[in-house]
Amino acid sequence: MEDDSAETKEILREDAPRIEDFLGRGSMVTVSARTGVDLAGYVCDQNESGLLLDARDPSGDSTGYEFLPWSSIERVSAG
Description:
The chain is mainly beta. It has one domain (20-78): SH3 type barrels (Roll), CATH 2.30.30. It contains two helices and five strands. A hairpin with a 3-residue loop joins strand 2 (38-46) and strand 3 (50-56). The chain starts with a helix and ends with a strand.
């Protein structure tokens, strides 16, 4: 079996994030849930169960903490 790591390094941008950075505590993300609701906020924590956000409204004010099980999440975007 050949090592594909050299080819992968050529394809990825140098600034491509890793999961621990992308979903790390304090990262600002926007989450699209299967319910059709998009939530923006700062990551508080994440584990095998889901993602805990300090949710923010469009003005940036906190609207409380939201827990989203992974099964309810369709997409997570950095923002």
